[in-house]
Specification:
The structure holds two protein chains of two kinds. In chain A, 40% of the residues lie in helices and 19% in strands. Chain A is α+β, with helices and mostly antiparallel strands. In chain A, helix 2 runs antiparallel to helix 3, helix 5 crosses helix 6 and helix 14 crosses helix 15. The longest helix of chain A has 20 residues. Classes of the chains: A alpha+beta, B alpha/beta. The complex binds zinc ion (ZN).
């Protein structure tokens, strides 16, 4: 039973980062504003108002369709999805039903067993509903307020075939998708609530369960892992898996069954009579795609000579890739290593994004490393100091200023030579051992010099200096 | 310079739901012309109820596109007129605020659903009126009250601000006592509006011409068939003879799709209505929900009390037509039938310039006469084909039976509203 396959398909809702809403001119930049301040008769669903399609939203969705290798429909259509809910202003959502904008696409990901093609069933456009704000505690709260600022934000829904085989693969798919959307500049993953995922998950041969309401990247893997374990445990105990809809409770990391009446909807779809069918064939031709993650990865290998692994990491997000390209001129190889192997770890540790690291400071740091002015150990220390200063809201210091303040500069050659001579004078026993052919003695002497200079010298270099000095004395 | 006009009508027919005692108006082609607006068209700052309890107290924060155009043209908007609730009816008896009476005989209905607009114009309470026509709602009351009413080509007038009943069928249109005035009003409200994606950039700036020499008129046999009062048919045939005497050529056709038209119409309009009216759930409109109840229960209570019987009937019918498993048998089939109606019109219009016949199968009914909904629906048989196809149609008075007016309906090709206006004008100039 353990070897039965896990089968996962995803439905991903992404908010497109257009300036105005899907069907009216209201601004989408509402997150710092009071409730219901970004509204008009259209997005409030006032009687008599009519939707007006935002061309930019269609263009964005077409870009995504093209980037995911979809077939764009000659004629697509908006439909009404009818259901009652307090935050649904018109009691229907304008979406696409049987004639979606794009179909039959694919996305290459780094799967559990190497490169893998995940098929995209469809991509369609729709409007986001408003948001219910429950006042008081839990579901027995006193009342609910509705905020329509979010109503009408353009969304795309991307539906995959059930091609994913593990929660980890699902996360990798999402990472790749997010990177692709970022490269297209149609999506801002940092905006709260900009991505919501529903997942269909089953163990081969058993019923399928839909998990709704996953609203973070980390949540997807968590929810799916919980669900795989739950379903496998049921099967192990010989119990059936019910075909049902479950909700992910992010705070507890579990899924719970939702059998409420509101879920059993017949949406009574029919074509939206206030909008004309979309004909975009000629438009699609004229849309040019920017460089996408795979192409950029290849270019990084070619142009900067970085390793395949580093190239994959560095192109995994648009801002990261741009950051790398801005610091690479200092030294492509060092910049790759220091970004991928050190900086990302330090950022993760602090829950920071790449924005936290000022490019000019990082460039300066790479130059210091390159010129041998500081040791790797000092460089890491400087990196941490800068990020900690950012975290505390201080203007971060320049690397050189930190070097000066803490005396982290690699000792000067004279100083080093002086210390080498001192050590040779202080350690006659070890010197004798060296002359007797005991090579460990040399290591001991190097260690003594390192101690003297508090690690600010290069051990390899010390080795050479000591050898030269001792061999001369013979 | 804004001017002020006082408006205190003696509204003995209950044409108005709201009147504006002091109307401000400006300069323009309609400066000082008094206009009544149907109560399903949004007017900024003026209560707009669709003659429904559920919208009692709703004051739109914006003007419908046509209202903005009227104000720009200097028109004086004097009030909001009574109607069948949300446009659902043929008599204006389905108003939550009581029926409108026919000014020519107060025991009779004015027709509907734009009955208030027609009665206001017919009784001289105002110069012109704006109505909306989903399945005959401008032409029927125009015929019953003895005035002129136009349902424009679909897409020629912006619906932005018209509280939707059946989006794919309805148009806002002008109503007046004579064709020339109607034409003037139409030239103000027609044209493209980016906020209504279904509008087309075809402004109207036509001066009616009475010369119809050589005009080819199609007569559709089904328009004179079963269910049509023979006396009405008689009056309309005399009108056709008048048009012939003015140089028109008349030719006969059949329209087989007529037998599906009424069902196609009612399935389509109720389906769209069930969706359009779903937003009236009591959260934002109506007297307020009972918060002790679950929201599902509170919603149904609110909707049961807020909507009239006919509205509830149509919402239920429409909900059913769109339901999973029935969609193909009803909504989709209705769209096929609708295409057959379009095809029939297209075929006939390859031969002729306009089609003419009666607007309504009968003269204005007595109040309460059509108590059976099905009988009421049958009265729309001659007006719905134009809505199903989207073609323009006008009703112009063409005679009387028992001193009640009969309307001559003239249907035109897509975007050839000018031709039906000319035909109506030619007939009107000849006099009855
Ligand atoms: Zn808006």
């Amino acid at each position: 039973m353990e070897d039965r396959e896990t089968i996962i398909g995803l439905e991903i809702h992404c908010q497109l980062n257009t300036k105005s809403k899907m069907f009216c001119g209201c601004s989408t930049d509402f997150r710092d504003n009071e409730p219901n301040t970004h509204t008009c008769p259209v997005c409030l669903g006032l009687p008599g108002s009519m939707p007006m399609v935002n061309k930019r939203a269609i263009e964005f969705a077409l870009k995504v369709g093209k980037a995911l290798n979809c077939t764009i429909r000659e004629e697509s259509e908006f439909s009404r999805k009818n259901y009652f809910y307090p935050d649904l202003n018109k009691a229907y959502q304008i979406t696409q039903y049987d004639k979606p904008l794009a179909e039959w696409g694919k996305l290459l990901i780094d799967g559990d067993n190497g490169e893998k093609e995940v098929k995209i069933t469809r991509i369609h456009l729709e409007e986001d509903p408003g948001r219910s704000v429950h006042m008081g505690t839990t579901d027995r709260g006193k009342y609910t307020l509705v905020d329509y600022n979010r109503a009408g934000i353009p969304l795309i829904e991307i539906v995959t075939e059930p091609d994913l085989r593990s929660p980890k693969e699902a996360r990798k798919f999402l990472n790749k998708l997010r990177a692709t959307l970022e490269y297209l500049n149609v999506f801002d993953s940092e905006k709260e609530g900009s991505l919501r995922v529903d997942a269909n998950i089953s163990i081969k041969g058993s019923e399928r369960v839909e998990v709704k309401n996953i609203s973070s990247y980390k949540g997807v893997e968590k929810a799916l892992t919980f669900e795989v374990t739950r379903q496998r445990n049921l099967l192990r105990r010989g119990q059936p898996i019910a075909r049902e809809t479950r909700h992910f409770v992010e705070t507890r990391g579990i899924t719970t069954s939702s059998r409420s009446k509101e879920e059993e909807n017949d949406y009574r779809y029919f074509p939206e009579p206030d909008l004309l069918p979309l004909r975009v064939s000629s438009w699609v031709e004229s849309i040019e795609l920017p460089e996408l993650p795979d192409a950029r990865r290849e270019r990084f290998i070619r142009q900067y000579g970085v390793s395949a692994e580093h190239a994959k990491t560095l192109t995994g997000g648009l801002k990261l890739a741009e950051f790398y390209e801005s610091v690479a001129p200092a030294d492509p190889a060092l910049a790759a290593t220091w970004t991928a192997d050190y900086l990302l770890g330090e950022l993760n540790y602090r829950d920071f994004t790449i924005d936290a690291m000022p490019e000019d400071l990082f460039r300066e740091l790479i130059k210091l490393i390159k010129s041998n002015a500081i040791t790797d150990k000092s460089a890491v220390e400087i990196l941490r100091i800068i990020l900690d200063e950012v975290k505390e809201g201080k203007g971060p210091e320049h690397p050189q200023a930190i070097v000066d303040r803490l005396g982290l500069a690699k000792s000067s050659e004279d100083l080093v030579m002086k210390m080498v001579e001192e050590v040779v004078a202080e350690q006659p026993a070890a010197v004798a051992d060296y002359y007797a052919g005991k090579m460990q003695a040399l290591n001991f002497l190097v260690g003594q010099v390192m101690k003297k200079c508090r690690g600010r010298a290069d051990p390899g270099h010390l080795n050479t200096l000591l050898k030269e000095l001792l061999d001369k004395k013979v | 310079m804004a001017k002020i006009l006082s408006f205190t009508p003696d509204d003995s027919v209950h044409a108005f739901l709201t009147t504006i005692p002091e109307v401000t108006y400006g300069e323009g082609p309609l400066s000082g012309v008094t206009v009544a607006v149907k109560d399903n068209i949004s007017t900024k700052g003026i209560e707009t109820t669709c003659a429904s309890k559920i919208l009692k107290g709703y004051i739109p924060p914006y003007d419908a596109h046509v209202v903005a155009l009227l104000k720009d043209a200097g028109a004086a908007i004097v009030g909001k007129t009574n109607m069948d609730e949300f446009g659902m009816g043929t008599t204006t008896e389905n108003s939550a605020f009581g029926p409108t009476l026919n000014p020519l005989d107060k025991n009779r209905v004015p027709g509907g659903s734009s009955g208030g607009s027609a009665a206001a114009v017919a009784s001289g309470l105002c110069d012109v009126a704006i109505g909306s026509d989903t399945g005959g709602s401008i032409r029927c009351p125009a015929a019953f009250c003895g005035i002129v009413g136009l349902k424009p080509t679909y897409g020629r007038v912006s619906r932005y601000g018209l509280i939707a009943y059946a989006n794919s069928l309805e148009q806002i249109g002008p109503m007046a006592r004579d064709v020339k005035t109607l034409s003037r009003l139409y030239s103000v409200i027609a044209g493209h509006d980016p906020r209504d994606a279904t509008t087309v950039n075809k402004p109207y700036s036509h001066e009616p011409s009475a010369n119809i020499e050589g005009l080819k008129i199609g007569i559709v046999e089904e328009f004179f068939g079963e269910g049509v009062n023979p006396r009405v048919a008689e009056v309309v045939k005399e009108a056709l003879a008048t048009l012939e005497s003015l140089g028109a050529v008349v030719k006969s056709y059949t329209m087989p799709s007529m037998k599906y038209a009424l069902s196609a119409y009612y399935v389509t309009c109720t389906s769209e209505a069930s969706s359009n009216l779903a937003r009236f759930d009591g959260v934002r409109y109506g007297p307020g929900l009972d918060s002790a109840k679950s929201w599902h229960d509170a919603y149904s209570e609110q909707r049961k009390e807020g909507f009239g019987k006919e509205v509830r009937r149509r919402i239920i019918l429409g909900t059913f037509s769109l339901a999973a498993g029935y969609y193909g048998r009803y909504y989709q089939k209705a769209q096929t039938a609708r295409q057959m109606v379009r095809d029939d019109f297209e075929r006939i219009f390859r031969d002729v310039d306009v089609i003419a016949g009666p607007t309504m199968p009968d003269i204005a009914f007595r109040l309460g006469e059509k108590s059976d909904p099905l009988q009421m629906y049958l009265a729309d048989i001659l007006t719905v084909p134009a809505n199903l196809a989207g073609v323009p149609a006008i009703s112009v008075p063409c005679g009387k039976i028992d001193s009640m007016p009969v309307g001559l309906q003239i249907i035109g090709k897509y975007f050839d509203d000018e031709k039906i206006i000319d035909t109506a004008f030619a007939f009107e100039q000849e006099g009855v």
